[in-house]
């Protein structure tokens, strides 16, 4: 028997509410996500989460993290440029660009793994503790994206 509690607009199939149905896993992921952020700038955290959510087509997480970024004072101009950050050189610091490059590589593992040059670029901008946090954050947002997409979370809810 399946616990189905969330209905999508696109279909009549109900999807489970992950937080309610798997509370231990949900709480563990919250703790993992929280640990990732400890040594990272909150603005950088949002940029990483936005980029991974774009790549994973996760509307729910993209909405959440762009909203959170705005609340932290992020400009609309920069938010619009995250998707094209490689071409928008003047909008992001070298540190942010290194984080976004590593985020893309980790998110797109199937394409080419994590190239040495992308890893080295990030390692040159972050100390080991920060780099571990950045990697952990990327692992976490990719997991959140997969949960939200798999359970058809609706942007703007919760």
UniProtKB/TrEMBL annotation:
Which GO molecular-function terms appear in the entry? peroxiredoxin activity
Species assigned in the record: Streptomyces rimosus subsp. rimosus (strain ATCC 10970 / DSM 40260 / JCM 4667 / NRRL 2234)
What protein is this chain from? Carboxymuconolactone decarboxylase family protein
Q: Give the top-rank taxon of the lineage listed in the UniProt record for this protein.
A: Bacteria
Domain Carboxymuconolactone decarboxylase-like residues, every copy: 23-104
Pfam families from the entry? CMD
């Amino acid at each position: 028997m399946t616990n189905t509690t969330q209905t999508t607009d696109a279909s009549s199939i109900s999807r489970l509410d992950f937080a309610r149905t798997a509370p231990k896993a949900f709480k563990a992921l919250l703790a993992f996500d929280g640990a990732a952020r400890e040594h990272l700038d909150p603005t950088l955290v949002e940029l990483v989460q936005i980029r991974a959510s774009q790549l994973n087509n996760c509307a729910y997480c993209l909405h959440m993290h762009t909203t959170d970024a705005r609340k932290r004072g992020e400009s609309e101009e920069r938010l619009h440029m995250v998707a094209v950050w490689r071409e928008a050189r003047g909008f992001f610091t070298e540190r942010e660009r290194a984080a976004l490059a590593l985020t893309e590589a980790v998110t797109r593992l199937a394409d080419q793994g994590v190239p040495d040059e992308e890893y080295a670029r990030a390692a040159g901008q972050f100390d080991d503790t920060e780099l571990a946090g950045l990697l952990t954050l990327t692992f976490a947002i990719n997991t959140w994206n997969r949960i939200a997409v798999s359970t058809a979370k609706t942007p703007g809810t919760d």
